[in-house]
Fold:
Amino acid sequence: MNKIVKQFIAEVNARNQNEPEFMQAVTEVAETVIPYIVQHDIYYGQNILLRMAEPERVVSFRVAWIDDQSEIQVNRGYRIEMNSAIGPYKGGLRFHPSVNLSVLKFLAFEQVFKNSLTTLPMGGGKGGSDFNPKGKSDNEVMRFCQSFMTELFRHIGPNRDIPAGDIGVGSREIGYLFGQYKRLKNEFTGVLTGKGVSWGGSLIRPEATGYGVVYFTQNMLQNKGASLEGKNVVISGSGNVAQFAAEKCIQLGGKVLTLSDSSGFIYDPDGINTEKLAHVMELKNVKRARISAYVDKYPKAEFHAGKTPWHTPCHIALPCATQNELNEKDAAALVKNGCICVGEGANMPSTPEAIHTFAKQGVLFAPGKASNAGGVAVSGLEMAQNSLRYSWSRAEVDERLKNIMGDIHKSCLTYGTEGDHVNYVKGANIAGFVKVADAMLAQGVV
Ligand code: NDP
Ligand code: 2IT
Structure:
């Protein structure tokens, strides 16, 4: 068995040299899915996972734009159209200097499984640019977005490929991107999700990823007869996902002790309450400041420069910043300090060694493709509302989100239960795989 996995990894690696993040994501899936394929005749011998590891299409393009000093800047834009077996390509856009082909291919690969888990008809894709929005003026961000969309528009469409936000792409960027698409196509269509509510967006979409992570975490705890009430929670990141994960934790009686950004983390021994979180949102979303500014207003809190929050004692950890932000040592520290549950808000934030540590120590561990699927799920609901030319209430979307997270949890139990333990990694990978694989088999070798 191990030999088949190794052969498969070697074959994928041979044609994807120097793509460590992509190989990490493929390896994590192959280790659980290949044993399942071997046991199921309909999939065996079809090279189905090999086909899934090859993007249907990769677009790379020049994005030239003019900065506020009238200098010409050049960035690289991408869209990875990974798999369209169960629906049009769907997935976010990331603007961050670390963006490259490997990072976007890993994200697009993960997205295929995640979107399948949501039960909604969405294929998988991802895109973005090495553009760094930090320190740029609104006008610079607008000009960049307009130039980016002037190429991207020919590859996307409401029935073809529907981008959304991710790191560095929030409501401001989606607005500029949508405006340029509409201008170029002379069409008002649901080509992007995460739109403003007055121009085709869905209520709860900004909250959806963070809320969904906490709903999933709650499901894992409830399955063990526990709850979030009174638990200490450590969160990384302070962007979209982290903010709304914190909000839902507070609502459900958890005590949120930390938030972070790439400069360090803040620790508030009294817990970050609703009022303090409102200040964080003002700092990050309006002033576009650093999380360290939190301690200026709340001097009892500490800022730890250049550090991640994983050595803070807690019951629950929610990594909500970026890939590989939580390593083996961090995982060991979390376990030692009493952490019983980890819900990934970011995509692939835990290294393989960290995941192994959690598994060995019996920590409840939800991989991002299951626990952060709430964002793209509500994107799917935004698409449904756009098609209906109608919008649902906040309560209705939230209820659907809760149900979807509950259904994903059940799928993980179906495919991941091993005695009295649930292997959520295995459950999510196999459940995500089966739906896409069945569609691919039905559609022939294409
Ligand atoms: P934002 O841009 O809103 O926030 C990102 C946060 O992560 C910031 O606090 C940022 O700090 C921090 N961060 C980014 N890169 C690094 C790094 N290299 N090291 C340390 N901290 C870093 O993005 P989102 O909240 O939307 O995304 C966070 C994660 O959640 C990503 O992995 C994304 O793929 C995933 N995700 C997002 C979804 C969504 O709907 N938005 C859906 C599902 C998953 P700084 O400001 O210093 O860069
Ligand atoms: O990683 C993700 O699932 C996202 N960034 C959200 C994608 C989407 O299409 O809403």
